[in-house]
């Protein structure tokens, strides 16, 4: 309860009229705490009508996707700021670090445990625009390294980014797919092969 009151106070302090950004900020906090993103609860905490929340995001699914995407983008930025290498080594560190953060995230663990199949659909379906944005983010890094002469791979970079994202997804949802514990380290040999780090 105190946690919720502090969120309301924070929203009230920043603006008298809450907007979509406030909803996302509140959604991130609730998701990170392992709480369900209930539209009525979020609307109540923001002090807006639930219809307003739906007008901003269209549906609960789209709200959830936007919350998770904003956290994914944040995670990528954090990992990228810590990576110092160039070329294939940079890509390997970025993907591995991102996968580590995703697998360790309390909100993601809770979401996959409670509603894994639905979560997988939202994060892998093209029309929700989560996967395309993640592919674009990795493709941008691949292109940057290629343009600076640090990466030279005989494949289409968009296709490589797609495969990297599918690899990330496979190891994130490992428990749902095979019943095994997610483990970012298992992805490293495959990534090294894709990036030709051992050749």
Count of folded domains:
2
- Rg, Å, rounded: 18 Å
Main β sheet profile: none
Hey, roughly how much beta strand do the residues contain? under 5%
- The residue ranges in which pLDDT falls below 50 over 5 or more consecutive positions are 1-7, 9-15
Output mean pLDDT: 91
User: Based on the structure given, which CATH architecture of the largest domain is correct?
Assistant: Orthogonal Bundle
| Helix/strand order | HHHHHHHHHHH
Roughly how much helix do the residues carry, as a percent range? over 70%
> CATH H-level name of the largest domain... which superfamily?
Tetracycline Repressor, domain 2
| CATH top-level class of the largest domain | Mainly Alpha
Count the E strands.
Answer: 0
Q: Rough shape?
A: globular
User: First CA to last CA: what distance?
Assistant: 56 Å
The third-level CATH topology of the largest domain is Tetracycline Repressor, domain 2
Structural class: mainly alpha
Q: Count the helices. How many?
A: 11
Keywords:
single chain, 199 residues, disordered N terminus, 11 helices, mainly alpha
């Amino acid at each position: 309860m105190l946690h919720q009151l502090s969120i309301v106070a924070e929203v009230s302090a920043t603006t008298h009229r809450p907007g979509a950004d406030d909803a996302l900020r509140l959604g991130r906090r609730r998701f990170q705490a392992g709480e369900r993103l209930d539209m009525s609860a979020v609307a109540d905490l923001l002090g807006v009508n639930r219809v307003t929340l739906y007008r901003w995001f269209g549906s609960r699914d789209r709200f959830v996707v936007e919350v998770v995407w904003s956290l994914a983008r944040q995670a990528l930025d954090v990992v990228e700021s810590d990576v110092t290498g160039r070329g294939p080594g940079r890509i390997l560190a970025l993907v591995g670090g991102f996968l580590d953060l995703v697998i360790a995230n309390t909100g993601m663990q809770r979401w996959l445990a409670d509603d894994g199949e639905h979560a997988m659909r939202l994060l892998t379906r093209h029309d929700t625009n989560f996967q395309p944005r993640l592919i674009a983010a990795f493709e941008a890094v691949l292109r940057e390294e290629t343009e600076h002469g640090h990466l030279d791979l005989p494949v289409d970079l968009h296709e490589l980014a797609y495969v990297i994202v599918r690899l990330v997804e496979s190891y994130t949802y490992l428990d749902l797919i095979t019943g095994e514990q997610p483990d970012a380290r298992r992805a490293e040999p495959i990534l090294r092969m894709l990036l030709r780090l051992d050749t």
